[in-house]
């Protein structure tokens, strides 16, 4: 009954909620959210510096998350680079001195804080427990020297000395008014930060501090906020208020040793907030979105925008012409012979010409959303924070859904199309959960996900070897179709998001290995199944080819210098460099270097066994005899358990990654056997996972910018203040966008890659000229950046 109700419900739901309607809903959501965030930013106070300095929350016990933006964790080398030409002074009492010590620990963790120069950074602490004329004179003398001043006056001394009287508060207001002008003058040329008074733990205060209460401190805070920055005419000369440490201290002050001074973890938060406020605009870290201005679009980004705008204009013109013709043309009489109505040739021609421009127009609109999410200052971003629950609970939900949507498979062959789509689908969903939860910090999960990436490459080797072995189609059309479908989205993103090709590392990796597989199978002698069936010697020949490929891989794996020299030659280097280095490409290539050959070898053995009828692939029957099936299943389960135990004992990613290429293939083989040996298992598949598997490449690439944020370093926030609802909405939009891009890519592939050989060669020539132009423009921009950095 439940299954019948599910089937009827599914049929009824599909009448009203299709993927087309889902996409329309996602478009409406994007428009509304964009308007909401735009108005919130520009009319409700959208300064990320204010967000950083004023508010936030703890993720866990020690990780501080500013409201709406990401805080970079500065290393000592970065801090020294940023502050090398700045003069920094901390002014206040014992509380600000502790903040000063925490700040020094960022710059030089090994150096003792003594108020002197830290490395190359002039860093001072000056004791001023109260606001007075002496402080005013000091501020006036600093007017001649450009410096960033972190200034906190601890009113605890005023409260302590005067018993918290109202007269003391009024005197404090008068003294503060006297120094407000010098402070604002300092802020004109430098940066001035006033640290608002943190709360105290009243029960933990000593007897001589009992008069310091949170109520009194709050009164003094209000005086500061109402007195400073009173000159509205000079908006540049603003003293910034640090209230984030005060908010953090509200959760941690009970851990204070004396009730007055903050715990070390809270002081570290305040110091890192100040470092981000000063240095983010200078160093522009990708995971430090607070206090960063929008970068100017590059030349390539501007040219790409022009191409999309031009496509939109052509589409509108063709659409208008098509409508005019349809209004003016008379109804065409039906064809007597076929009984079908013929369309006018001109209308059909316009329709054929309009389709690619319509697809490009849609792609341009989608790229606007990408740009708004991860390049424009519209949507919020937050840091990742890993907990076991944020990874494993969604994982359980996902697999329950996948099992619930199980259906009978049309085929019962090993690794049939529905099963491979299912495999890619659940692996992609696991990887998505892994990325958004920040699970890479947990080494056992990291190692298991590494196997999933190897499995993708295994499928690449298996699928392309099977195609070439069975069909022998080495034509240019097939190659260009594969390369276009793999690279279209990434090339567009490289232009729109101003990122190098290697940044989207998986696509260069799959593209490279496809070319290697093609070269291996296409080179003389071309050995196909038809040829091998005539003589068994050809089976040995294909094994020799695979052995040669293995030796080729091993040679480069143990020749890093040669590898880097080859891929560092221009223009090849533009495809494989990341941040001016080939190291990332070397790491990714080496990590899964045997996965492709594992897939090719498995495909060869399977197809030979299938041809020799060595497998039983009928519905409901085990793949091998009962005895062999049970032994293989037992070995496979034992292999899984052994790997999980080993991965759980990993203490160092580097050491475990060294072993990964040699053992990942065993886990992939174990999964294939467990999934395919039982006949009932081979006869079912999850339509839920298979649907995602069909758009797995688009999901993997799109997550970089419209689900994650800051180039995968953070999380996109569409719904602030509600993480669960934010994930639901952003995921819904993300999946709809990925599906639409998949449709657009397939449509454009039919137009961009014609079957006619002459037309295809002309387009390849045009594509080559276009690529060369992009490389030249990129090289010119690199030289201009180098010259700017020199001068």
From TrEMBL:
Pfam families: Cas1_AcylT. Residues 284-764 form the Cas1p 10 TM acyl transferase domain. The keyword Lipid metabolism does not apply. The chain crosses the membrane at residues 299-321, 385-405, 426-447, 453-470, 482-498, 504-524, 536-558, 593-609, 630-647, 659-677, 689-707, 727-748, 760-780. It is found in: Membrane. It is a multi-pass membrane protein. Belongs to the PC-esterase family. CASD1 subfamily. This is CAS1 domain containing 1. It comes from Oncorhynchus kisutch. The gene is CASD1.
């Amino acid at each position: 009954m439940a299954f019948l109700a599910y089937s009827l419900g599914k049929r009824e739901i599909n009448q009203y909620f299709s993927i087309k309607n889902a996409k329309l809903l996602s478009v409406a959501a994007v428009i509304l959210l964009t308007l909401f965030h735009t108005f919130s930013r520009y009319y409700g106070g959208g300064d990320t510096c204010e967000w950083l300095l004023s508010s936030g929350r703890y993720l866990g016990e020690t990780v501080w998350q500013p409201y709406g933006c990401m805080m970079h964790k500065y290393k000592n080398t970065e801090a020294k680079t940023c502050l090398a030409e700045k003069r920094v002074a901390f002014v206040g009492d014992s509380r600000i001195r502790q903040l000063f010590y925490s700040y020094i620990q960022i710059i030089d963790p090994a150096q003792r804080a003594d108020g002197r120069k830290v490395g190359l950074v002039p860093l001072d602490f000056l004791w001023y427990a109260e606001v007075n004329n002496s402080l005013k004179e000091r501020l006036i003398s600093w007017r001649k020297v450009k410096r960033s001043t972190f200034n906190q006056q601890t009113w605890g001394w005023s409260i302590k000395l005067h018993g918290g009287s109202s007269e003391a508060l009024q005197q404090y207001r008068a003294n503060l008014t006297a120094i407000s002008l010098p402070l604002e003058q300092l802020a004109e040329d430098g940066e001035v930060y006033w640290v608002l008074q943190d709360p105290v733990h009243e029960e933990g205060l000593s007897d001589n501090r009992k008069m310091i209460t949170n109520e009194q401190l709050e009164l003094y805070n209000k005086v500061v906020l109402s007195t400073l920055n009173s000159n509205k005419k000079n908006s540049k000369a603003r003293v910034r208020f640090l209230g984030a440490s005060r908010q953090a201290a509200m959760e941690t002050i009970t851990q204070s040793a004396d009730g007055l001074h903050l715990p070390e973890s809270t002081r570290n938060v305040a110091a890192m907030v100040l470092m981000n406020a000063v240095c983010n605009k200078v160093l522009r870290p990708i995971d430090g979105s607070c206090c960063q201005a929008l970068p100017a679009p590059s030349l390539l980004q501007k040219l790409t925008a022009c191409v999309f705008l031009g496509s939109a204009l052509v589409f509108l013109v063709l659409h208008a012409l098509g409508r005019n013709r349809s209004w003016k043309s008379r109804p065409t009489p039906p064809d007597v012979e076929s009984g079908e109505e013929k369309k006018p040739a001109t209308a059909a021609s316009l329709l054929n010409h309009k389709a690619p421009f319509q697809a490009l127009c849609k792609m341009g609109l989608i790229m606007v959303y990408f740009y708004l999410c991860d390049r424009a200052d519209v949507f919020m971003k937050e840091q990742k924070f890993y907990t076991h629950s944020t990874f494993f609970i969604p994982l359980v939900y996902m697999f329950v859904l996948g099992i619930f949507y199980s259906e009978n498979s049309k085929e019962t062959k090993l690794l049939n199309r529905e099963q491979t789509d299912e495999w890619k689908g659940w692996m992609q969903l696991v990887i998505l959960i892994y990325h958004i939860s920040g699970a890479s910090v947990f080494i056992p999960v990291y190692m298991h996900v590494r196997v999933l990436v190897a499995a993708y490459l295994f499928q690449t080797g298996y699928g392309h070897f099977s195609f070439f072995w069975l069909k022998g189609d080495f034509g240019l059309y097939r190659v260009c179709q594969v390369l276009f479908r793999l690279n279209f989205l990434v090339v567009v993103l490289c232009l729109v998001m101003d990122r190098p090709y290697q940044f989207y590392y998986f696509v260069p990796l799959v593209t490279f290995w496809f070319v290697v597989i093609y070269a291996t199978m296409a080179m003389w002698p071309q050995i196909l199944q038809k040829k091998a069936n005539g003589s068994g010697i050809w089976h040995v020949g294909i094994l020799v080819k695979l052995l040669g490929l293995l030796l080729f891989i091993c040679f480069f794996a143990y020749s890093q210098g040669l590898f880097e020299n080859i891929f560092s030659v221009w223009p090849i280097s533009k495809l494989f460099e990341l941040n001016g280095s080939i190291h990332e490409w070397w790491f990714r290539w080496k990590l899964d270097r045997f996965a492709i050959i594992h897939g090719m070898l498995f495909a060869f053995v399977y197809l030979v066994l299938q041809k020799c009828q060595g497998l039983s692939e009928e519905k409901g029957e085990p793949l091998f005899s009962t005895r062999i099936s049970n032994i293989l299943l037992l070995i496979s389960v034992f292999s899984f358990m052994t790997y999980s135990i080993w991965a759980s004992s990993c203490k160092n990613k580097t050491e475990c990654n060294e072993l990964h290429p040699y053992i990942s293939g065993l886990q992939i083989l174990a999964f294939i056997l467990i999934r395919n040996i039982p006949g009932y298992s081979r006869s079912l598949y999850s339509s839920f996972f298979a649907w995602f598997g069909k758009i797995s490449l688009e999901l993997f690439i799109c997550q970089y910018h419209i689900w994650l944020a800051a180039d995968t370093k953070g999380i996109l926030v569409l719904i602030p203040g509600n993480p669960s609802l934010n994930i639901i909405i952003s995921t819904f939009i993300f999946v709809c966008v990925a599906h639409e891009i998949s449709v657009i890519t397939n449509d454009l592939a039919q137009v961009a890659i014609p079957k006619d050989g002459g037309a295809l060669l002309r387009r390849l020539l045009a594509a080559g000229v276009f690529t060369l132009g992009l490389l030249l423009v990129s090289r010119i921009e690199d030289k201009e950046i180098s010259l700017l950095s020199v001068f």
